Amino acid sequence: MRVLLTGGAGFIGRQVRHQLVAEGHEVVVLDSFRPDVHTHKPAPRPGLIVGDVRDGATVAAALDGIDTVIHLAAKVGLGVDLDDLDDYVSSNSLGTAVLLRQLAHTKIRHVVYASSMVVYGEGRYDCDQHGQVAPGPRRTEDLEAGRFEPPCPICGAQLRPGLVAESALLDPRNAYAASKLNGEHLAASWARETGGRVSALRFHNVYGPGMPRNTPYAGVAAIFRSMLERGEAPRVFEDGRQRRDFIHVRDIATAVTMSAAALPHQPAFTAYNVGSGTMQTIGDVATALSRAYNGPAPVVTGQYRLGDVRHITASSARLKDTLGWKPAYDLTTGLADLVAGGHRW
Ligand code: UD1
Q1: What is the distance between the alpha carbons of residues 261 and 344, in angstroms, rounded to a whole number?
Q2: Cα of 43 from ligand 1 centre, angstroms
């Protein structure tokens, strides 16, 4: 394949580029080197275009000679406050729209789109009495009182969290999630209009060497790592029993390259969850990292972030069954890798 990789200088992008090159594909990276992520902007060189995906002329030039696009360029994370709102829409929704518009003027019909598990909002929940239910956003007064588990919306009983499949209700709860889902919808409509093929990969919590540091947009594993490197205890929000699925960045890279190669045989639009299949509590991840650093034990603070969901854990059976993808890292090996550090662009 001859691939245009947007966001190819980011945490996930660098690993995807590495994997593509190792597999013998040609890669052109388009990356804006956003100042909130990168400390310097390199000069362009063969295989690297320094530019913004929202700039149609730059994208048009970047698409020359390409047969497959992997679109990772995005503003990630939960955001700091509502001042981030328009930047999510611009960087993610508009960025995807400009890319798709330019693609429509070419013969390129194969796109992998980086989506996120956050499009589901709260994960799957079952009530003993009412079966599968969809709890709404958690109430501030419940969170203030330390009631972190969302109750059954019908009877208020405690719920059992489960695994979401790709067919689950989509319920984005913050600007990032809304912009990622919007990108999926735009890509699906582009595929219908052009006869193109899109695979949207809904990534779980990605960690590993090269994770961004010291930014409010970093994932929790990177935040805990930075605290431990300063000799501080990781600060665990809520009661630490909220669940996520942590997936190593190299396993993500394999999922991306496999799904890109499979696009010619895919339907117009397919969503795939990408997770390790092993659920962890945030408290357990903090404890494992503290041990790996021989650092202070985590502190459970009871603090909360309004945009956070309680549990989000998904089934990646579709990706495994359809493409034969299998994650190679368990959390212990993966965290050791994170502690050992990583390369930069
Ligand atoms: C993360 C990603 C999001 C991705 C999603 C996929 C980030 C910032 N967010 O969202 O881009 O789409 O996974 O599933 O990478 N927490 C603490 N202490 C802290 C910070 C966070 O306990 O100092 C807790 C949070 O309250 C939350 C959990 O850790 O319960 C995970 O937070 P975070 O890493 O921000 O990830 P998600 O919100 O799951």
Answers
A1: 26
A2: 33
